[in-house]
Amino acid sequence: MTTTRISPRHAGALSASALKLDYFSFEKIAAQPPSWWQNVLGIVGFEKLPALDGAQVPVTASMTPSLGANDNICEVWRIGNPETQLSNGAAATASGVRYRFCDELLFGSITIEERDSLDGRTAGDAGALLRATEKAYQEIFAVLAETEHTHLIRVWNYLPEINREADGDERYHHFNSARRMAFHNSGRATVGTVPAACALGSPAGSPISIYFLATRQRPRMIENPRQVSAYHYPQQYGVHSPIFSRACVLSESAGTNLFVSGTASIVGHETIHPGDVAAQTRETVANIDALLNEANRVVGGSRYSLDALKFKVYVRRPADFAAIDSALTSTLRPRAPIVYLQADVCRGDLLVEIEATGESAGPHNLGYAE
Ligand code: 3EB
Asked: How, if at all, do strands 338-342 and 309-315 pair?
């Protein structure tokens, strides 16, 4: 498939393409007119690939089951400005990265079956996971180079059985080694300017599923003053540190421009409140709040607040859903948008992880209508 070239950097482009995130049902998506699809960058289903046959945009799934009343909900990334020109349909590379982009922003996704990367090894050993992860990232970096969306700003990583041991170490730790190798080998930073991210476990038998946003504009990375940067974690959490920033902002962009990584009950580098899911939830919100303060300090002003965020909550044990929900509803604004999913969190003692995306209340928010 050929890639449509968007003329680079036309005047005013930087603040024109307001990114929007919505959680819509399959039915709502199916009822949209063709003109709506012209502005869709990508769609993410949760427990399974949404049945959107013929959709000319990347459609993927995290493979993490929904909890609560979130059945049939999809995450929809689109551009709010109807005048923004997007690439044709969903380009797909030979390797399977599907992507769509406008001048400033690119959405992409890739799913890889570990057994396709076995290369003579036995299923379930670490080699297939290492190879599949490294290959996925190589393919992602190749797309970014090709379309000149050099800055990877946010990555969602889902791998089956994240906490299971394979070849003497946890699969999450093997994943961290492979991710680090891929960043290093492509000449990318492994500390500092690294994307916001999350890494969650999906059920056994799922493919590795990764999706991402990238930009032409350089983002600003935000670290949490209450936490050690993940890329500086001590080796007790794995030989190779995870590579992610706690959050990032696109301070020159309109619309959704704050991306809070998966956030958990970690202070310094240690898990706190082990076994107490309500306390872990409150500590996680305190961490997100600290990140918002830090983002406001970095961009200057009070552009970001808990009240303008949309949340995705990963629950390890479905039985904890009610406790987490009540801790959140007593902390967040009434009717805050929250999607709950079941997923294993990458440290065995973490019971909950929360990610968020937000709009800026600042002068750059052009506020295009629905
Ligand atoms: C933590 O703070 C919890 O490996 O990409 C959060 C966000 C976590 C991203 C990743 C891991 C990742 O360390 C886990």
From this structure: parallel
Distance from C-alpha of 190 to C-alpha of 178, rounded to nearest angstrom = 12
Q: Which residues contact 166 (CB under 8 A, 6 or more apart)?
A: 124, 125, 126, 129, 174
CA 228/CA 242 separation, integer angstroms: 12
Beta strands 40-45; 59-61: pairing state? parallel
Residues enclosing ligand 1, CB less than 6 A? 157, 197-199, 230, 242, 244, 261-262, 264, 266, 346
pTM of the model: 0.94
CA 66 to chain centre: 17
Distance CA 314, CA 166 (A): 23
DSSP letters for 74-139: EEEEEES-TT----SS-EE-TT--EEEE-SSEEEEEEEE-GGGG-TTS-TTSHHHHHHHHHHHHHH
Q: Which of 346, 347, 349, 350 to mutate to test the pocket of ligand 1 (most atoms within 8 A of CB)?
A: 346
Residue 107, strand partner residues = 100, 213
* Secondary structure class of 21 (helix, strand, coil): strand
Outline where DSSP puts E strands in 1-72: 19-25, 40-45, 59-61, 66-67
Tens digits of residue pLDDT in 172-218: 999 999 999 999 999 999 999 999 999 999 999 999 999 999 999 99
